[in-house]
């Protein structure tokens, strides 16, 4: 170490801290708990509900406040989910070391990482985490960058070399000067992007529900004002009569229980998946995953398990001559005894080549993912080990067929070679010379001389359940893209053995420029030699082609690609940052759980789609009836409590129980279009039947209270018809749900008749009710046939347009 380095003075440190050049770590950049609570309470619809509640209290219609519990539950669940998401992002961090040794005024001092400043000189030794970007001043260390690259990289760093924040020191000791601190450091910039909350929903279902709610919010004020004006001023009804009828129309137009049902359904799915050792950071991610048509996976840990073993070692000509092989086995054993790499590849080599340490190691370079090799210098020679195409360079073509023959059966090939100089300006020596020792290279081996000695054949066992998992995705029409840092031919063969479709279409990503990636993602299934930067570009290219993409990852280098994907999946054994950034975490690292998640997502979408149809029936009907009442200057026939009762037994209770039912039907079509067209027959039937009942009631002098009660049960009958239709084909479970809701509604109308404004009706009203009730079934049947035809045409046109655009 350079003992003359005095580092910064205390005065200079204070000056830099005041200038904002300290190593302040990123904390919370999102909303506070108070902001989340305020956003969920002070909403547009909550304001509308609050005003309606005040008006109802003033008018004395206390039994019309039955909608309030649903509104309160909606707000509480929204607050809970928002705070939970915030806490997850707040825990997202990569730097775990809190203190570091810094040189201040010529002395070593223990300093908190937040108190470091730009230009500080720090001491790094084995076990230290690099807390800010730096450059080595003096000394030499071996750095593990696995947290950043996703691979167990150990790179030798000498004076002048740059150090990236977030990596660890494996061995050695050095002095380093901080060059970028705080938010300017590499790891801080990455965390800023990772912590950034998405500005828009990714889920199509949630987008559709938001559109429904936004439309309702746009029309309720003018409709409400017009209803009150025509009832109070034109018809001359009292304030106590006008307010409840207006509120009933507005409540019917707002899907107040849809968010609640969505939250409860997704919450129950979270619990079910937790029992399967799947953790969800974002409950809506399971719906997105159910719509995924492309999933990006790595070879190791997904297709294969995380273990590795040496299958064989052969000479460079493919033979296994015993004496020569024994000599090189001893040489390789000494080699791995010198390299301090600590990863599954090195563990496999150590098991196959027991360390002997019979040779003296002069110097070494740990494996680098950038250069794809490691190196050791002995007295009698210098040797390299790594990916054949990187170690052999121009000589690779001479051995390509042999290497590919091993890769074609799923083996990963390492090349152990003699090095005779040439890289980094080192002189090339004659391989026949007595002195074979040459300085180790430290960079790309362009122009270097190497001679292959042994090819080491490695393999990862394919996970036992991998073929069944990928067969499931194939059956469901989900494309799989394999993204790996290994030889593309090796990865291709492993993918083929796992049953991945089109696994023979592979490419070496190191040969691709950024402009080549969009075409490559359309043509190839397997991407080998993928750099960390290319992962994000592959995901973006797939999304630009209109695909819904899921990305699996386990390293910090995967985070940005995971954030860009529609759904991100992490293995729990990966880095903490990747686990916290992912929407879905497989706690047992078993990719075979993915079909369960997809099935759970399909259960949610299909069942919520059915329930959303029921809600839209009420919303569309209420809007049409409100407009009809305004135009014809008649009192809106329903009361808020009656709307609540019908919603409870036609929508809320059946929707909840139907959401529990398994439903693995493939997701097709657009959510909003499907639910709108499915809701139209019942909504139109409701509107026409009740509008006719109102007209006939006024014509024959039927009391307004009687018309209101008859309208309630007419609305309920149509509701149960549409409920039966969307439950088709009926089974015992569905019949029990429908039968239970019918019985429950009858009992509620009898027992809580005052609460729900239910009273006896006149004979004239009863006769009208029976007449229109009978007419609803055939009318709705023919409307259903018509809108089913329209839906098929619309969905086919949309699918054709998407395929053409893609």
Molecular structure report:
There is one protein chain. The chain is of the alpha/beta class and 806 residues long. It has an eight-stranded mixed beta sheet, with helices on both faces.
Helical coverage, percent range: 40-55%
Gap from first CA to last CA: 60 Å
Unreliable stretches (pLDDT < 50, length at least 5) are 197-202
Radius of gyration: 35 Å
User: Overall 3D geometry?
Assistant: elongated
- Main sheet, how many strands, which sense, barrel? 8 strands, mixed
Kindly name the structural category: alpha/beta
Give the strand order, joined by hyphens, for the main sheet.
Answer: 8-21-20-19-9-16-18-17
Q: How much of the sequence is in beta strands?
A: 15-25%
Mean pLDDT: 82
Number of helices: 26
Key features of this structure:
15% strand, seven-stranded antiparallel β-sheet, single chain, elongated, 806 residues, 51% helix, 26 helices
């Amino acid at each position: 170490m350079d003992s003359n380095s005095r580092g910064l003075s205390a005065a200079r440190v204070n000056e830099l801290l005041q200038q904002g050049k300290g190593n302040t770590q990123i904390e919370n950049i999102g909303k506070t708990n108070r902001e989340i609570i305020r956003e969920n309470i002070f909403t547009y619809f909550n304001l509308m509900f609050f005003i309606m509640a005040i008006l109802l209290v003033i008018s004395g219609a206390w039994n019309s406040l039955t909608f309030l519990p649903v509104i309160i539950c909606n707000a509480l669940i929204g607050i809970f989910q928002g705070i939970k998401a915030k806490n997850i992002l707040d825990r997202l961090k990569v730097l775990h070391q809190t203190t570091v040794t810094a040189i201040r005024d010529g002395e070593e001092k223990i300093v908190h990482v937040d108190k470091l400043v730009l230009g500080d000189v720090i001491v790094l030794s084995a076990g230290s985490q690099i807390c800010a970007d730096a450059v080595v001043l003096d000394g030499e260390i071996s750095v593990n960058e696995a947290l950043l690259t996703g691979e167990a990289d150990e790179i030798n760093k000498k004076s002048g070399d740059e150090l990236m924040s977030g990596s660890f020191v494996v061995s050695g000791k050095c002095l380093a000067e901080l060059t970028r601190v705080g938010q300017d450091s590499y790891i801080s910039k990455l965390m800023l992007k990772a912590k950034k909350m998405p500005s828009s929903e990714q889920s199509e279902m949630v987008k559709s529900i938001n559109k429904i709610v936004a439309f309702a919010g746009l029309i309720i004020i003018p409709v409400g004002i017009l209803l009150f004006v025509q009832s109070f001023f034109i018809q001359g009804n009292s304030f106590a009569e006008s307010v409840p009828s207006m509120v009933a129309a507005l409540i019917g137009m707002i899907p107040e229980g849809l968010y609640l049902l969505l939250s409860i359904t997704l919450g129950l799915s979270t619990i079910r998946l937790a029992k399967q050792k799947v953790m969800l950071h974002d409950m809506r991610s399971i719906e997105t995953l159910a719509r995924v048509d492309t999933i990006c996976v790595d070879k190791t840990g997904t297709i294969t398990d995380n273990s590795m073993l040496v299958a064989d070692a052969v000479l460079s000509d493919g033979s296994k001559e015993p004496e020569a092989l024994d000599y090189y086995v001893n040489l390789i054993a000494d080699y791995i005894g010198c390299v301090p790499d600590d990863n599954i590849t090195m563990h496999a080599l150590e098991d196959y080549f027991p360390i002997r340490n019979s040779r003296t190691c002069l110097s070494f370079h740990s494996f680098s993912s950038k250069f794809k090799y490691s190196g050791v210098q002995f007295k009698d020679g210098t040797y390299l080990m790594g990916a054949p195409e990187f170690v052999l360079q121009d000589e690779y073509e001479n051995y390509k067929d042999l290497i590919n023959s091993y890769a074609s059966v799923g083996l990963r090939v390492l090349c152990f070679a003699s090095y005779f100089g040439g890289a980094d300006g080192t002189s090339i020596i004659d391989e026949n010379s007595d002195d074979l020792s040459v300085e180790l290279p430290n960079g790309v081996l362009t122009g270097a001389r190497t001679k292959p000695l042994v090819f080491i054949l490695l393999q990862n066992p394919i996970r036992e359940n991998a073929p069944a998992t990928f067969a499931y995705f194939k059956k469901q029409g989900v494309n799989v893209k394999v993204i790996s840092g290994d030889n593309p031919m090796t990865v291709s063969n492993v993918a083929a053995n796992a049953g991945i479709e089109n696994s023979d279409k592979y490419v070496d990503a190191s040969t691709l420029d950024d402009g080549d990636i969009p075409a490559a993602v359309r043509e190839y299934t397997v991407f080998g030699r993928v750099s960390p930067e290319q992962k994000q570009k592959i995901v973006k290219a797939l999304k630009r082609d209109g695909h819904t993409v899921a990305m699996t990852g386990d390293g910090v280098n995967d985070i940005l690609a995971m954030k860009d994907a529609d759904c991100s999946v992490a293995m729990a054994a990966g880095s903490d940052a990747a686990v916290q950034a992912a929407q879905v975490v497989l706690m047992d690292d078993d990719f075979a759980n993915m079909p369960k998640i997809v099935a759970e997502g399909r259960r949610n979408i299909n069942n919520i789609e059915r329930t959303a149809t029921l809600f839209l029936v009420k919303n569309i009907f209420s809007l049409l009836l409100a407009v009809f009442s305004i135009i014809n200057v008649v009192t809106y026939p329903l009361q808020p409590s009656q709307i609540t009762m019908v919603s409870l037994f036609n929508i809320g209770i059946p929707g909840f129980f139907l959401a529990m039912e398994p439903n693995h039907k493939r997701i097709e079509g657009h959510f909003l279009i499907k639910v709108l067209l499915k809701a139209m027959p019942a909504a139109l039937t409701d509107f026409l039947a009740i509008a006719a009942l109102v007209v006939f009631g006024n014509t024959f002098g039927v009391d307004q209270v009687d018309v209101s009660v008859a309208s309630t049960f007419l609305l309920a009958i149509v509701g149960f018809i549409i409920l039966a239709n969307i439950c088709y084909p009926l089974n015992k479970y569905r019949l029990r749900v429908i039968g239970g809701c019918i019985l429950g509604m009858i009992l509620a109308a009898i027992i809580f008749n005052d609460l729900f404004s239910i009273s006896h009706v006149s004979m004239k009203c009863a006769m009208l009710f029976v007449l229109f009730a009978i007419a609803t079934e055939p009318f709705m049947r023919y409307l259903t046939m018509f809108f089913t035809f329209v839906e098929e045409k619309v969905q086919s046109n949309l699918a054709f347009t998407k395929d053409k655009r893609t």
